[in-house]
């Protein structure tokens, strides 16, 4: 059905590496794969295998879980996007790290994969969405800093020249044309 690859860390692995929970859910125990260094695994490539047909309204969603924390959505693949390299932003371990009994094993980090309705997923590429948010934040910060250098104070209000946006945008465009690496500083 699907395969995964951890860049620079593994060979391609198929679904048999995962433990099947039910017909639509699989889990990879990271302790058996890398031990306690799970948080060193930062990326994962997931791909649909040739010959497997996922219905067009379904997706394979990928989640990660640090010991004792809830699962966190990382992205998904579908028929229209049959492979993806996903960032794995491991959450901090949760407070449930204690053992339930002396004979039980400690909780471990996991990667979960499940078949879900495509329409119910927030975005297939969480990393790209975070890059766009980061970019917007950095551009807004740049604008604010530029405006602040021209501000005056009128009581409890900041006063800026009427053409400040035009001046900022023109400066922003000129700098981007002069220095091709300038815009790269705004991305993750």
UniProtKB/TrEMBL annotation:
| Domain Hikeshi-like N-terminal: residue ranges | 17-121
Q: Mention any one GO cellular component term assigned to this protein in its UniProt record.
A: nucleus
Q: Name one GO biological process term.
A: protein import into nucleus
**What domain of life is recorded for the organism?**
Eukaryota
Q: Name one GO molecular function term.
A: nuclear import signal receptor activity
Against Pfam families, the record matches this protein to: Hikeshi-like_C (PF21057), Hikeshi-like_N (PF05603)
**Ranges of residues in domain Hikeshi-like C-terminal:** 132-184
Q: Give the protein family.
A: Belongs to the OPI10 family.
> This protein is called what?
Protein OPI10 homolog
Q: Name its species.
A: Nelumbo nucifera
Q: What is the lineage of its organism?
A: Eukaryota, Viridiplantae, Streptophyta, Embryophyta, Tracheophyta
